[in-house]
Protein 1
Amino acid sequence: MKNYNVILYLLLLVALPTVAQEPQSGTAVYSFTLEEAIDFALENNYKAINARRDVARAIKKKWETTAQGLPQIDGSVDYQNQLKQPVTLLPNSAFDNRQSTINTVEQYFDNVNRNGEQVQPLEGFTPVIFGTKQQMNLTATLSQLIFDGSYLVGLQAAKTFLEYTDNLEEKTQLEVRKSIINSYGAVLLANESVRILENNKETLETNLNETKKIFENGLTEEENVEQLQITFLQISNQLSNTKRLADIALQMFNLSLGVDVTSNTVLTDNLEQLALNDMDLAIAEQPFIPENTIDYKIGYNLTQQRGLELKLEKSRALPSISAFVNYGTAAFDNEFVFFDSDTRWFQSSILGAGIKIPIFSSLKRSAKTQQARIALDQANTQFIETQQNIQLNYNRAMSEYLYAIETYQTSKQNLALAERIENKNQIKYTEGLSTSFDLRQAQLQLYTSQQEALQSMLDIINAKATLETILNTPEK
């Protein structure tokens, strides 16, 4: 009995989904076959939803990288108000005549005095203010990248990253599918266990009541009653616990679906029928091609990324060429009159190009290139290890799948034998040919065989799901 409880707890933990969802208002009602549940979860499971968002974000990231090499237009508006304009001293000889010098000096001191300052002129020099107090500039610039090695590598990296994200989404879908199969089977196992335990409890209760009457008539020993009471109490306690675990299993299944955990969900498939459908020995005869597995594709994507990182570091030694053209207009005045219709604006435009040539970096670029080369070597080694792990995981999954089928066939035979043994002991006990202890042992053996048979069905379902996840060939 204790072993069965431990097994059921472990099954519930295995079936626990890797996603979470906020409860929704109200209690919904759902009904699913296994395939319907898988299809529903692939659309509504939170992890599947976020995987699709990752792909969408990767698509935008690819365009962001592409746009860096396309024309860029920037505009700017600059306004300046020189609260205190700078003064420049010019020698008096720079002016054409003395009168112009006097006028300039007088104009300067008039402006200074109006600002509340007292400044004495310097002998032989004339203080002059260049420009106006306020100015505004409007500029638009068109820039274009002509050649940059790192940009070309970036385009390749963006494409590889998108492929990597697509593969991650596919892996997520496989894991969601596997999680649904595991949790669906766990619910069916818990419900079937409740049904069997209720039948066992009913049979035990009948035996216990009959034995009590026989004891009350003095035709049997009290120990026979006590033996049956022990078994009855154990079954009753196990039934109560299994019902609670069945509720938890259903909540976990709802969580893996992506619905409220309190939803009333009905599972329409049968545990044994699912196990029989999954018993396919022909799958062991199919050739295993590691290159078709999702883990191989992801591992290859990682080596591609490291290779592009090395290519990027090498490209930094190449020159980059860019060009630009801008157009601007500016206005100047001592007052803020830039929105007046009669304000005069002065136009300007510049066309330019530039070449940036890396010459010497004190071996910095060389060091970064060597680091990228080492990282690529590490990625290649890890990829080899990944291929070995894929083969090992396939061999282990295939072995566990075949063993699950063999265990199911054996457990069915053991269950039939245990039922016959328990039935014979029931007859012997009723006729007084065996003790209640013998009957209890036969009953416990039957209960264990029942749970082993149920467990073997679930093992087939889960082992087939694991194998299909590795093969990346789920049933359509």
Note: Residues 149-216 form the longest helix (68 residues).
Protein 2
Amino acid sequence: MFDKEATTIEEQIKLLRRRGLSIHPEDDAEHYLSHISYYRLGEYWYVMQSDKEKHIFKPDSKFSDVIALYNFDSELRLLLFGVIEKLEISLRTKLIYHLSHEFDPWWFQNFNLFNDSISLVKTLSGIEEEITRSKDITIKNHKKKHKNDKRFPPSWKSLEQTSFGALSKLYGNLKNTIESKDIIAKEFGAVNHTYLPSWLQSITQIRNYCAHHSRLWNKNLPGAPKLLSDPPFYWVSNVPKQHEFQKLYVHLCIMKYLLNIVQPGNTFTENLHELMQKYSNIDENALGIKPEWTKEPLWRYSKKH
């Protein structure tokens, strides 16, 4: 039976000190604990503990290092959110363009084009919720002008209201015989429909962590993206092994690979490297980042010529 009671910030600081965490007046521990919960910060000091049961800290464990880890993780999420935004807009554009031309503007509600009708119902339900909630002037005008049309607004209006997750599910659920599914994969450098769905699923998961301010540093990520044996564009020579897929690095590589196509000349490598340099005490192994990663072809170049 859970019987712990809430503690004051002063009690939290005393407890941490008693357990061996070094806290100095200049660390502003009271300030940080009044704005960032003890439980949330605990995700960052957990690795500093030598005894996880009694929560005893290793020698030389510092509160300032906990805050540095927290700030690094926060800035990493912001960096990745910006990258994912560009990939999301590109995926949305390609889905709308190719499938509207191959079929019609309402292809996304055509059950004949999808493998799993139950999954499609759930996706459409989410899209309907977003459209109903939307205050976008184009949606309002469409409903007003076409109030007798019981269909969704056309894809170029409806899918602008959807999340990356919904777009990813729509793409993955398309039947493999749909020509646009392979065209989109090829345009993203994924050769065919076999690989891209798992990449999109990986990115969706990381986007959700970013959106909900969840920890990325030292996190074991679920899922295993399928990797091309011979990608048409620059990739890493030091390829992560299957057991390393739970770390962030392979997912960063996939994002960089796609971004090199979506935005040639991007500064993702420089931005990530600067962040790592800013927080030089961060253990790169906690992210699965390989030694000399910045020298890898993928991270050095924007796109093959």
Note: Residues 238 and 292 are 10 Å apart (CA to CA).
Protein 3
Amino acid sequence: MTTINELVTKISFAFSKLEEVEGVVLSGSQTTNSQDEHSDIDLYIYSDVEILPSIRKELLEPFSDYMEINNLYWETEDDGTLKDSNIGIEIIYRNYEWIKKEMESTLIDFQAHVGYSTCFWSNYLNSKILYDKSGRLQNLQDQVKVSYPYELKQNIIAKNYPLLRKSITSYFHQIEKAVKRQDYISINHRIAGLLASYFDILFALNDLPHPGEKKLLKIVTQKCEFIPFNMEESIIKILNNNTTLLMDINDLVDNLDVLLEKQKFMDY
């Protein structure tokens, strides 16, 4: 029986035969040693021009039991399950110049976002290159293997910290209004935003590129040196108990304040 690794190798080889393809990389939990029984296979196909969906469909059919071609919900993707298994596979198509500009934006311009500021850096940094036509992918990966820029850390905290509670437009104040209205959809939406900014700050404070939206509590516990007091307990209470929601958010941010003050990042 063909193993999953063998299937991935064969899929990578098949894509490498397409003239449009510049490179194929394996990414996600498979390359960060964080996979579990629910993990998918994440393959990224880099090119300078579009690979037609009809070509991708024909290429992938021998390797899959089920495949949705050209999903456009987040990025351009083909999503399905590998042949004779229940293991999911996501094949994401990216333009090489686009990812290069994303790396420059993060590591040269030090641009921060509202949540998930360094996810693309983490993704590319931790990718395993399976095929590299001209060496461009390896060259770019070598360039992004740098220490966490202090200016980037400053910008991420400056952009995200006020949104936790300080600004009049902060998530806390939006949640406060939503609680008064009993607008539960809005409450959940704003809590997700608050936690996105919170973890963006926390990973920056620990000089770690943001790993994405999955298994964050586990990753923080395993990899972060600086963790606010009672962080996990506070987050679980926020997500499970609306009766003390605003108090729990205050506790979460108060303890982050203590950590930021110790690290001399309390000017925001």
Note: Strands lie at 21-27, 41-47, 64-71, 76-82, 88-95, 128-132.
Protein 4
Amino acid sequence: MDLISDLLRISRARCVLSGGISGSGAWAARSPAPGRIKILGVVRGSYWFRLDSEPADLRVDAGEVLVVDGRTSFDLGSDLHDSPVHLRETDPVRPIDRDADHVCVTAHIELFEAADDFLRDAIPPVLHLHGRAREATTAAWVLEELFDEFAHERAGRTAASAQLTQLLLVQVLRAWVAAADELPSGWVRAAGDDRLGPALQLMHADVGRDWHISELAAACAMSRSSFAHRFTTTAGVPPLTYLFRWRMRLAERALDDGSSSITELATQLGYRSESAFSVAFKRWSGIAPSRFRQRNPQSDLS
């Protein structure tokens, strides 16, 4: 399994360079809850960051990056006791002062609407890529390149900045997964569990198979009861519930992009009939597959 690639693929995450923040002397800015994942990377200087839902302030130095889930308002600046400038998502992009003491580039993540919670629920409210992390060297280089793309109107700027920002997000996620002492219960934690890895690889490789607990437990060299207990404790749900949810995520993506007819999709996901799949999907999403597909005019297969 490639955990991070799966996260980004199913969420259809697309990184967009938003602009930046720069300042000298004492300054502070306050942002309302963005409503989407935000990336903030320090190119020069340092700043303090405070998330309303977290008790401690974070110091973020040059070459370091924060990723916030966008559900909570936050403050940042060189001095959080200073009177803050109030930022809004609708504000025009502010020009970056290249000679300022503190320079930060910002980006946001656009997600496939139906899978918005998939990535945001998988990560904590704030991720901090520290300068001592293995991934920090690459991140620092990416930040300099992003700053250069933002500062110059060169051909291909949009495409280049999107790829660079995506790489920056991957570095933060890699560092988080590698450094976490104990990830919260969920599929990210399960994917990082070596004992459960063989079962997850089987389910992801053949998602349409009628898997049985005994088969998955045997692949992990565990008893049925021990496997079921470990999986449920680690993933937060029983194995077959995990499989059902993964199938539904794949179904949402396929229905949205029109890559298969509903009948073909039902077969691919292991359902014996289109009606059985439709019942399962409606239980998951609240609407029938055909109605879900109709929300995207580009999807015209039935």
Note: The chain is about 45% helix and 20% strand.
